[in-house]
Specification:
Blueprint (H helix, E strand, L loop, with lengths): L1 H13 L4 H18 L9 H14 L2 H19 L22 H9 L4 H13 L3 H5 L6 E2 L4 E6 L4 E6 L2 H14 L16 H15 L7 H14 L4 H8 L4 H5 L32
Antiparallel strand pairs: 1-2, 2-3
Helix pairs in contact: 1-2, 2-4, 3-4, 5-9, 6-8, 6-10
């Protein structure tokens, strides 16, 4: 892909781009290339690139992330003759519905992961709908195994979301602590620094292939799937909005189009009232 970046650079030089812009665009493409160099082009979807840019904005300056978005959009148009269906911010131009895994497909993928650390990363994403950038930046102190909660810092809101952890996820986290004994970063890489998004995407893709699930899924698909499955189990969409960390309900409401909610299966509040307790005063006539 490096030769393609050189072609792109020559295109920029032949145009009306100043030296500063050329350097910035070139660097942005190289950073992205280091993330996807082991991935087939079929996996580098508009959604994947969009999520990358959104996470980049979370971790770095928003203007820098938007410039990277402009660089990627131009790169794909010039080199691959492909117009990305996303804005420079990473947001979708269209109301394109995301890919969703069934619960059984999620189970197949999770079963395919044998590395305890990798399994815990993916379990947390599906348990709480985390973004990759959120899970790789978790600290040990953000986890409270006794209360079964995890704290997710939100830089934009300058506060934290406290999310509940399922008991089966807690079990795997305890095993992970016994084996790897993390002390600061919850999921450190080989050099003690946080995992990169690319690392997580790679071991997810390996599990996806091993599982036999044929959908064009990415790590972010676990977040989408959690949201849809939560709605199908009766979770209020406003609560889901808070769990996912969405600023606007409109962002969360897209999952309503994907959830298959059985109204006849929802629990009715009258079921919590014992109608046979005490004496009921009524007359049949």
């Amino acid at each position: 892909m490096t030769h393609l970046i050189e072609r792109f650079t020559e295109h920029l030089k032949s145009g009306k781009y100043n030296h500063q812009t050329i350097v910035a665009y070139r660097n942005a493409i190289f950073v992205f290339y280091n993330l996807v160099r082991d991935m087939p082009q079929s996996k580098i979807t508009d959604e994947f690139i969009g999520n990358y840019l959104i996470e980049l904005a979370d971790k770095k300056d928003k203007n820098e992330a938007m410039q990277a978005g402009k660089a990627l959009k131009l790169f794909y148009e010039v080199i691959f003759n492909r117009k990305l269906g996303i804005k420079s911010t990473g947001e979708s131009k269209e109301e394109k519905l995301p890919e969703i895994l069934s619960k059984n497909e999620v189970k197949q993928i999770l079963y395919a992961v044998t590395n305890i650390k990798h399994k815990c990363v993916l379990l947390l994403i599906y348990n709480t709908g985390l973004r990759i950038s959120e899970v790789i930046n978790l600290k040990v102190e953000d986890l409270n195994l006794e209360k079964r909660t995890i704290r997710i810092w939100d830089k934009e809101r300058e506060n934290a979301r406290i999310l509940a952890l399922s008991s089966n996820v807690i079990d795997f986290l305890r095993r992970y602590f016994v084996k790897d004994k993390p002390s600061d970063i919850l999921f450190p890489g080989e050099k003690g620094t946080p995992y990169s998004s690319r690392n997580v995407q790679l071991f997810f893709q390996a599990a996806l292939k091993k599982s036999g699930v044929s959908k064009n899924a990415t790590v972010h698909t676990l977040r989408h799937s959690f949201a849809v499955h939560a709605l199908e189990m009766g979770m209020d969409i406003h609560i889901l909005q808070e769990i996912l960390g969405h600023n606007f309900l409109q962002t969360t409401s897209i999952y309503n189009q994907l959830a298959e909610i059985r109204l006849d299966k929802l629990r009715n509040p009258i079921e919590d009232i014992n109608l046979h307790e005490g004496e009921l005063n009524f007359s049949l006539y």
